[in-house]
Amino acid sequence: MDTDLKCNRLTCRKSLTDKAVVTTCSHIFCVDCANELFNAARLCPACEATLTEPDDVVVCSLHPSNDYKTSVLSGLMPSIILEICSRAISFWQYQIYQESSFQQAVVRNLTDKNTQIQKQLDSVVREANSEISLLNNKIAELERDVELERRKVRELQEASRDRDREYQKLKAQHDKMKRKVLLAPNLSGQQPSGNETLNLSSSSFPGQGEPNPRQPLRAFGVGAVVDGMEANGVCILPYLFSATAQLFIDSEDPTC
Q1: Domain spanning 1-62 has what CATH number?
Q2: Would you indicate the residue range of the signal peptide (predicted)?
Q3: Which helix (H) or strand (E) holds 148?
Q4: Distance linking the first and last C-alpha atoms of the chain
Q5: pLDDT in tens, 56-108
Q6: What residue segments make up the domains of the chain, in order of their start?
Q7: CA 113 to CA 106: how far, in whole Å?
Q8: Around 141, how many Cα atoms within 13 Å sit in the side-chain half-sphere?
Q9: Is 50 helix (H, G, I), strand (E, B) or coil?
Q10: pLDDT in tens, 14-51
């Protein structure tokens, strides 16, 4: 503990190193506070004791000279000297006790504030941990949702690739069937045009009977072509059938 005495005014608490003002009620003040307090009233600001006697408030030097130490108690009886020393030691002990009590009060206040702050901190930490837990749960849910969406995207991409392959396959089959249908009228090796006579052989349309070579067929219906294609194992699509029908209708001779 610091051995320097402090001004007993709570708003001051300045360390006393040179001169001080002491009272008979065992309190001590700095010179500035004493001039301010005791000029208005002769009451101790620490304990409110009445200080009416001239020696109740005395200015003393805290570091007296050797001459002062030699002469201050000279000529006094030993009993008086011992009484003075006893009172001086009691004054010092009271100041030490008062300072200790003040420091303990400060420690208690700081402890109470620290406890209150610790409780607030614990509450904030609990709330923060709760928020963090909720956010972690939301993050986990979002990660699961993202993974599910990624899986769906991969499935859709795979399905899209499969459909694209099916589309390309169907397109190739469509082009192949279209070429077959367009080449179907030229089964005898001739290209029909206008009033040109079309000869059908039995090999082109099996199961339809032998045509008479002496009677060339100028035009034939779409049904005969379709029957011949089905007999050869060719699948007829509806829209291809329409295109084929239009092709052969245009090639028929209206005079027949």
Answers
A1: 3.30.40.10
A2: none
A3: helix 78-183
A4: 137
A5: 888 988 888 888 888 888 888 999 999 999 999 999 999 999 889 889 999 99
A6: 1-62, 82-165
A7: 10
A8: 6
A9: strand
A10: 888 888 999 989 899 999 988 888 876 778 888 888 88
